[in-house]
Fold:
Amino acid sequence: MRKNIALATGLLAVALFAAPRAKADGIFTGTLSGTGEVPPTVSTATGFITVTVAGSLLNVTESFTGLVGGPAEAAHIHCCAPAGVNAPVAVPFPGFPAATSGTYSNTFDLTLNSTYTSTFLTASGGTAADAQSVLLTALFAGDAYVNIHDAVYPGGEIRGQLMQRTPEPGTISLLLSGLFALVLLAGRIGLRRERLANEA
Structure:
C-alpha cells in the first residue's frame, strides 16, 4: 500500500510541475492604444487582440476601431522587446482589413517559413523551427507586441503588448482537488488489494 501511495504522490507531483511546461500552449491578450506606441501617438483609436498557441498553430483574433490616420495599411506581431521598446516585425497579418475599424482572424502554422518575415527568420537562426522557438519564448516572457500601421502613422498608430492569460484560481483549485481525489482512490485500491492478499 505504501508503494501505491508513494506512486500516486509522485504522479501528482509530476502532473503539477511537469505537465504545464511540457506543452508550449498558451493564450495571450493585448489592448492596443496610441499611448502604447513608441513614441506614443495622440490617437484615440483602440483595439484588442487574442493570440492562442496550440501546438504549432498560432490563432489571431483582433478587433480595432477609430483609426484616425486613415485605413489600416498593415498589422503585425513584433518580436522581441518589452513594453516601451520597438522590435522588428516577426509575423505579418496578410489580408488585414484596409479600414479604420474592423476585425481580423487568421491561423498561422509556426512550422512554415512563410509565416515569418525573412528578416525575423534570418535573425532567429534561419529555420522555421528556430523562429518558432524565439517567438514562443518572447510570448511567454511578455516580449512580443502587436500594432496597426496606417498612412499618418507608418510606424504604428496603436500598439498592445501581448501578455499571457493565467488560469483562474478556481481552475487550479479544481485541478488540485481532482488530483488529490486520485491519490486517495489509489490508496483505497492499494488497501483493498492488501486485504485480499492477506485473506488468500
In short: The beta strands are 26-33, 46-54, 57-65, 72-79, 89-92, 102-109, 144-150, 158-161, 163-164. Residues 4-9, 11-22 have pLDDT under 50 and may be disordered.
